[in-house]
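A favour, since you know our C-alpha cells better than I do. Just paste the record in under my message, thanks.
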Amino acid sequence: MTDDRTKPEIDAPTGPAPADLVIRDIITGDGAEAKPGDNVTVHYVGVEYTSGEEFDSSWNRGETIQFPLRGLIQGWQDGIPGMKVGGRRELVIPPHLAYGTGGGHFLGGKTLIFIIDLVAVG
C-alpha cells in the first residue's frame, strides 16, 4: 500500500439507515487477505450515519492502529475478513452489530459508517 493515501471523506448518506451490514469495496487490495481473528493494521475514519459527524479517526492521530479482529465490534469482525492489504472498504454498521441499541455507550443506538484502509495482516 502506498503511503500517499489521504484521509477519506465520507459523504452524508441519504435515505434510511440499513438494517444489515453493508460492505462496499472502494479500492480492491492485492496483498494478503484478512481472515477472521487475524491481527490487522488499519487506518480508518468513522462517522454517525444520521448526522455525518465524525467520531473517530486514526488519520487525525497520524498513525495506523493494530488490533485483533476478535476484539472489535461485530460489524468489523464480519466486514473486514476477505479484504486484502492495500484495499479501502466502506462498512455501514447498524446498531446491533456496533455498540448495541441501548444507551450504555455514546454510540449506542447509532448506525455507523467506517472507511477502512487495510495496511497489514498478521
About this structure: The two ends are 15 Å apart (CA to CA). The domain at 22-121 is CATH 3.10.50.40 (Chitinase A; domain 3). The mean pLDDT is 93. The chain has one domain: 22-121.
